[in-house]
Write a structure and sequence with these properties.
- It is built from eleven helices and twelve strands.
- It has 394 residues and is of the alpha+beta class.
- The protein folds into two domains: 15-160, Four Helix Bundle (Hemerythrin (Met), subunit A) (Up-down Bundle), CATH 1.20.120; 180-393, paralog of FGE (formylglycine-generating enzyme) (Alpha-Beta Complex).
- A hairpin with a 2-residue loop joins β6 and β7 (273-276).
- The chain starts with 14 loop residues before the first helix and ends with a strand.
Length: 394
Amino acid sequence: MNAVHPLSHSPESDLLECLAAQHDRLNAALRATPAYEWRNQYHRDLSPIGWHYAHCHFIEAVWLHERILGEPTPTRRDWHDLYFPEQSPKWRRGGRLPPRDALLEWGLACQHHHMELLRAHPDVRRHPLLENDYLSGFLAQHHAMHLESLEQVRWFARLRRPEPPGVQTPGPAPHTSGDWIECMGGEYIVGSEAATAFDNERGRHTVCLAPHALRSQPVSNAEIAAFVEAGGYRPGPHWDAAGRAWLEHTGITAPLGWSRLPDGTRVQTLPEGTRLLDPQAPAVGLSWFEASAYARWVGARLPHEHEWEHAARAGRLRGTGAVWEWCGNDFRPYPGFRPYPYDEYSMPWFDGEHYVLRGGSAWSDPLLKRSTMRNFFTPEKRHVFAGVRLARDL
């Protein structure tokens, strides 16, 4: 399981350079997208590739020109009402985009101008949002998340046009995923005050954890295949009521991207193409419903995000950063939460309907793979490169 994009600078490097690296990735992504693909919407939850590219540059312009420099909103018809997500339904976005060459030319001009503002404009440099280059890091991470979404779009484009599996060389077998890491419980610190931390990560605080154990590795394809073959996708006591309703409504029978060849061989389609299912690789393409049903089926549970973070901080987890890992708890504010740099980044999603994911995926930029990063989605989402790591009480 390998992502196709080059990795950006490490989180410890200069945040302006990290932003420049995301610009390069955005340009490469648009240039590499076939002409028949960049306007298309392949899934109702995902915008066209061209819209993601434009939105990233639009957001830079809004922060720098409108919110820091106080300039009036441009009068262009396709400005806020196309590139602000809440003002533009996904299904309308592709047809309203400018031609690709014009979009790329505009994006390159934006990048050059915005980097000049961030590096040298006195009113920008003295603004509180530029303390410790916070805004540069915020924008770099924003773009990194949209670039991961681009890989999800490519995934669904591949699923629309299935291909025979390519030639592949088996990877090395990982450490056994069956061993458990025990934690005797106690009080531990979670959260972050780093310059790159989002508002929902901020507020280092103490949590009390009961004795528990986590699996050292994420659940593998082979383990999920055993679940499939044993009828795990049929309604049963391992599915909760909401999960059973989702299962019966969707008719799902395997993780996203799994299929069989005429001879019964199981294959997997990922953004890079279709290949034979690697039994050792971490399973990906699972909703929270599937992840929690599998955990119950093997007599375990999903970890609480605080359990996950403590083990990750201690360096005890292996295989992190290959798939986002669903946690058992919903997304809630930390004590003393303060929305920043705007109210809508996290606050609307503290609704009891979004669940936390940790760790990052093979398609995530290193900027997003810190131990305190909190991703969040509703439980039916399968396109978010998510898998599962098991936990149990002691």
